[in-house]
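User: Please look over both lines:
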Amino acid sequence: MNKKRTNLKKYISFHTHFVQTEFIFSVINVPLKTLVYEVKMMRAEWLAIARNKMILISIIGVILIPSLYSGIFVWAFWDPYGMIKKLPVAMVNLDQPVQYKGDTISVGNDIIDELRKDHKVKWEFVSEQEGVQGLRKNRYYAMIQIPKDFSKNLTSVIENKPKRAKIEYIPNTGYNFVSTKITDSASEALRKTISENITEHYTSVLFNQFGDIYHALNKAHNGGIELVNGLDTLHTKSNQLLSGLKQQQPSIHELATGSAQLYSKTAELSNGLLGFEKKLDSISSNMKEVTKFIDSIYPKLQTNLSTLNNQINEIMNRLNQTTNQMEQLKRLVPTLQSDIQKYTANHPETANDPNFQAVLTGIGQLSEIIKTMNFGKVENQLSGLSSMLQSLKDQQLSLPSKQLNTTAQLDTYLNQFRTAANGSIALKNGAKKIAEGTKTVENGWGTLIHSVSLLTDGEDQLLTGAKKLSKGLNDLKEAIGAVKGANNARNSMFAAPVEVKRKDMTEGITYGAGFTPYFLSLGLFVGPLMLTTIYNLRDPVGNPTSGLGWLISKYSVLIVVILGQSLITALFLLLTFHLAVQSIPLFLLFSFISSLAFGTLIMFLAAGFGNPGKFVALVALILQLTTSGGSYPVELIAPALQPFHRFLPMSYAVAGLRDVMFTGDFSAMWHQAGILAGYFIVSLILLIALFVNRFKKLKEEA
């Protein structure tokens, strides 16, 4: 019973499945009988291939072509820069040694010695003639020549007009242009190494010279300290001089005032004596009148004599004061002259100061006036005059009894008065000179104080600047002392202060691995293109029963080739070169998607347009060689070609393979896969329309 139920279920299930299948085919209007015919057409297609061994072998070859194409390219360019050591480059040294500070400098020989240890390229050390001939006969890819004045120009760095040392680089561009790019890098690396070594050497010499500079700065610093001390002492002395001048200024003013008063009193005395002399002349002319005059003026004369005697005593007192002041002035002037002479010796710039020179002239005149003046003589004359007046006063008491002798005595007195009057005139003139000289000294004294004050201000500024200079020299000495001497690490830092640290976003990519997306895409495109040349993807083997069946029979050959070449090529590259990809399944899948898009598009061009279509596919291949971005960035190619990058499918295949191999950006990979799927779908729709249309025309012709 259970067995019957099971069989019944199987029957119902099979019947249901058959009904569903029949329904599906009825919906798409493809009867099962038509499907059988299409399978027969596809079978006939493959039987025809199997019977023709040449075609079969050719198809197998086409499947393997992408592996050979991409494999050989990747193998050939897997690590070309690792083979640079086999690249022959001629090295010619014409440098002549030079003498520099007692040492022999031969930079050219030093470079050759270093290059003999360097195996980055195959250095060939030859003569200039051999190097030129080697370039002409293509034995060398480049020649580097050190000129004869190389060392000489390097040592000219200490001269006022240094000359840049040059190395002559001659690439053999006509022999192989790409090799010159490699030798360009080698020559630039050589230039950089030489420059760094020379800079390091000069830096070492420079810092060694800093020791001498340090000692020189130390001496300069000590000299600066002595300068500060000397300026400080000079500033102190100048302030003392200024203080002394200011202290003596009131005394100088008093001296000038006293001299003026002395001159005024001596003028009064001289005028009085002259007037009295005239009176005595008139008295001596007529004794009688004199006697009467004496009798009449006796009381007044006695009073006048007393007044005159008092004035003479006052003048004597003034004269004594003036004499004391002049004695002080005599002692002060030599001291002042000595101080000013010392100041002039320490400050030569005062020779051009008119105010200072006026002071010097006034002090000199004052010194000469003081030397020529004789106060003692004047004092003696006044003393004699006072005695005579006193005697006259005494004799006046006995004048009535001595009138007989009055004339003779008056003559004697007249002569004495005349002598005294003449002495008073000399006294007045001397007092005038003293008054003028002391006034000049007073005026010059103020100018001298102002000049010395300016001098002390300048010395103060100079002292401040000298202190700053001394501190700056000390700071510079300490700074140089911190860096003087040999230090290889520091010298290397000066020679190459900047180091470029490379940090790849994707590690372990070799030159050949970097080109793999490009070479793989080319191989997958070349495979279907070659298939169109050895196999007819348009004409049917037998009589087609439908356009879709016709397409399926032809497309089955293409799909086998596409699937075979994508899987075999991808696995061949993975296993042979040990490619490190981010995802092997996605790498295989994306290779198949790329191949599917290329093959479908090429089949449409070849089946739809024949040889012209194949030519268009070939042109598309040529354009994609440059515009896909597989070798050079798109931005570096000709601007007129850059727009093709966006419209050709290989650009998206290269970008997607880079994503799945290197960056691991699978979202970007799926984006590229979607664009390639668009190429596939559009091409497949066009193929269906093409074969359906051709089948209709074939039926109409039949």
The chain has three domains: 43-78+510-701, 86-175, 218-483. Strands lie at 88-93, 98-100, 103-105, 122-125, 142-146, 168-171.
